């Protein structure tokens, strides 16, 4: 009682005051009003403030003494949301998440791209895509704490901070939604389809009961995914990502090792199937480049993963995050390159359009043991279940953000479970209602590709503000522009791949 309280008046002029930037408020409404005066109170050393700091609607208390350069302002709502609820992660956890989200079913399509590009351009394109995407991921990691006192914990928030609230949301909202929700739908399609392959392989013609239909496999898959999704936050699913990373590496090894152990198919050719000086062939090339670009994933999750790591002035979060990404990308390279090279060597131009898993079950069904065939399919199912958890986390975070913003309190266990059941049912409905959505990945993926190849370069320029026409400025500008151009080409290739063979539009008939 009677303690002295010093008032501090902060004038917001041309630039927002960075140490009190509330990114969730920025996402919901607008930025700080320029020219407005904000009043904060500085407490004396003996003043106890536990209740004020626990309330998201209380007055923000600014403690000027003892705050590190990388310390984040107190924002109780962050402690209520699944991405930022726990910040005691480690480089090991981040490596598990990066591996689990970085290896996916798109990599199984790489031999299809090689059948169009040929050996030389296939390897060159794959190598360039690997380096390009590693660099843009490095940019995102460095931008996570680019503003002193602020951590950009979500890709959309970084986009809005770099391009402005309105433009950033316009550019980033749909691609981020697709890369999260769309990836979950594709995981249902691929995980459920692999489950059906597993049942068919194990049972064969000896099963007396009727095997599960495709829709029933999707339903079993989503039920298991929803059960796993009840973990409260991103940091708590590290063990799930560990299992996912192990299974992904194992099925990649099996998918290239089994064909190498067999003799090559008779009559295969390694000549590029692209017609020379033909417009249709150019569009096939664009589609093949899209397959290679989609083989590397996870840029929409890198900031969210980094948000689970602790950070201080002496040990910022980008240090353990880069260690995790370096390890993850080394493993990814050791998985992806053999898949592409061995798959193309084994199947050449006879590689099925659906990729390596289909090739294994159709071309090696009679010369490979049921154990290996079934194990490969089972590993794909397990990895799809684990990847669903991390790709669904941004959607869970958004749903809980809306609730906590309105109710000003954290979600109860039942509310959280309800949100996750709702999201799981929604993705299941889309997978069943629009099963041909897998044919649209080239088109929609072309729209989302700038999130990986272009936006990080432009955001680096906007936030870091390197000297105009300097080497870094020019390099990032050119690389970002090339990313936009490549995205347009991939989009065009996706359109052509729909128009030429046609698309079988059948709703509710997976």
From TrEMBL:
Transmembrane segments: 108-135, 176-199, 211-230, 236-258, 327-347, 371-396, 417-437, 443-463, 470-492
Highest taxon of the lineage: Eukaryota
Keyword Iron set for record: no
Segments forming domain Amino acid transporter transmembrane: 88-494
Keyword list, A-Z: Amino-acid transport, Membrane, Transmembrane, Transmembrane helix, Transport
Pfam annotation, one family: Aa_trans
Signal peptide: none
InterPro entries: AA_transpt_TM (IPR013057)
ATP-binding in keyword set: no
GO biological process, one term: amino acid transport
Localization of this protein: Membrane
Major subcellular location class: membrane
One cellular component (GO) term of this entry: membrane
Name under which the protein is recorded: Amino acid transporter transmembrane domain-containing protein
Originating species: Coptis chinensis
């Amino acid at each position: 009682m009677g303690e002295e309280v010093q008032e501090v008046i902060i004038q917001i002029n041309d630039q927002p005051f960075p140490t009190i930037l509330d990114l969730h408020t920025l996402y919901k409404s607008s930025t700080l009003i320029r020219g407005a005066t904000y009043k904060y109170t500085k407490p004396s050393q003996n003043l106890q403030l536990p209740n004020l700091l626990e309330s998201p609607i209380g007055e923000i208390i600014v403690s000027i003494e003892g705050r590190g350069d990388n310390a984040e302002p107190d924002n109780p709502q962050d402690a209520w949301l699944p991405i930022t609820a726990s910040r005691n992660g480690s480089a090991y956890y981040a490596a598990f998440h990066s591996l689990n989200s970085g290896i996916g079913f798109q990599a199984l399509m790489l031999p299809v791209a090689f059948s169009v590009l040929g050996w030389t351009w296939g390897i060159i394109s794959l190598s360039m895509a690997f380096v390009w995407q590693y660099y843009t991921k490095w940019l995102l990691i460095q931008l996570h704490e680019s503003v002193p006192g602020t951590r950009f914990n979500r890709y959309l928030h970084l986009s809005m901070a770099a391009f402005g609230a309105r433009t950033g949301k316009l550019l980033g909202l749909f691609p981020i939604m697709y890369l999260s929700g769309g990836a979950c739908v594709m995981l249902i399609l691929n995980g459920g389809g692999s489950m059906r392959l597993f049942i068919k392989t194990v049972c064969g013609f000896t099963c007396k009961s009727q095997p599960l239909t495709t829709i029933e496999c999707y339903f079993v898959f989503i039920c298991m995914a929803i059960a796993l999704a009840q973990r409260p936050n991103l940091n708590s699913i590290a063990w799930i990502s560990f299992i996912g990373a192990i299974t992904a590496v194992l099925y990649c090894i099996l998918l290239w090792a089994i064909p190498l152990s067999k003799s090559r198919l008779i009559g295969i050719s390694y000549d590029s199937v692209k017609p020379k000086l033909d417009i249709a062939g150019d569009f096939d090339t664009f589609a093949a480049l899209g397959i290679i670009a989609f083989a590397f994933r996870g840029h929409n999750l890198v900031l969210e993963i980094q948000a689970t790591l602790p950070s201080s002035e002496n040990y910022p979060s980008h240090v353990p995050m880069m260690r995790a990404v370096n390890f993850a990308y080394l493993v990814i390279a050791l998985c992806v390159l053999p898949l592409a090279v061995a798959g193309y060597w084994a199947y050449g131009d006879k590689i099925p359009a659906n990729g390596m898993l289909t090739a294994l079950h159709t071309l090696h069904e009679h010369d490979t043991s049921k154990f290996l065939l079934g194990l490969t399919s089972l590993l794909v199912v397990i990895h799809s279940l684990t990847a669903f958890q991390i790709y669904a986390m941004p959607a869970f975070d958004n749903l809980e953000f809306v609730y906590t913003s309105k109710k000003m309190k954290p979600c109860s266990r039942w509310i959280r479970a309800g949100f996750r059941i709702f999201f799981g049912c929604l993705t299941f409905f889309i997978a069943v209602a629009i099963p041909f959505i897998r044919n649209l990945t080239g088109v929609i993926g072309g729209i989302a590709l700038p999130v990986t190849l272009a936006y990080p370069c432009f955001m680096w320029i906007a936030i870091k503000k390197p000297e105009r026409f300097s080497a870094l400025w020019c390099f990032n500008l050119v690389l970002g522009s090339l990313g936009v151009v490549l995205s347009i080409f991939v989009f065009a290739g996706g359109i052509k791949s729909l128009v030429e063979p046609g698309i079988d539009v059948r709703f509710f008939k997976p």
